[in-house]
Design brief:
- The protein is 52% helix and 5% strand.
- The strands form two sheets. Strands 1-2 form a two-stranded antiparallel sheet.
- Keywords: Membrane, Transmembrane, Transmembrane helix, Transport.
- InterPro entries: Prenylated_rab_accept_PRA1.
- Pfam families: PRA1.
Amino acid sequence: MPALAPCPSTSTPSSSSSFCTPNVHKSPATMTTYGTIPTASTGATNLEYLTRAKQAIKTGLGTRQPWKLMFNLASFNFPHTISEATPRFKTNINYFRMNYAIIMLIILFLSLLWHPISLIVLGVLMAAWLFFYFLRDEPLMVFNRVIDDGVVLTVLAVVTIVLLLFTDATKNILSSVVVGAAVVVVHAVLRRTDDLCDDDVEAGGYAVGSSS
């Protein structure tokens, strides 16, 4: 317990044995601050963004059709004429578009297995596509100017092609695109559309059963 120091003399002392309690200075670390407003945590923002990304991916995958329906062998035959193949192709492209996109990505991934740098670049590009195009809720602003979605799409496509071509995997990328496109075209032409759901097919006015 600290010693009590005598009070300074005054003109009218109230007592001859008055003592003062010494001032005890609190360090800034022990002082409590009041009235401060906590700032928003960046962790909550990152969690919200990841939740949105997960929801967008689930929504996109929700448009995928069952693989069993897509590769139903009983629904394959050769079209007799071009006029029969054209509406069949358009209907299948519209109906199985998410399945076709997954097939293209799988073929591209397999072609880049022996090029790890290209795989890393591909992952970064996919993140850029998600951030700048698919998961944006607001228009993209650059120097206080709104950038049109068409411009964003064009720039991302050009950057994607250029970066992948500069990773010494040009032949693999081109071959995977050609193989994937061939698989999509062959399936879309050979797959009959008479057993597809009418509500999910909108192919420019063509009836689902027109290519049966």
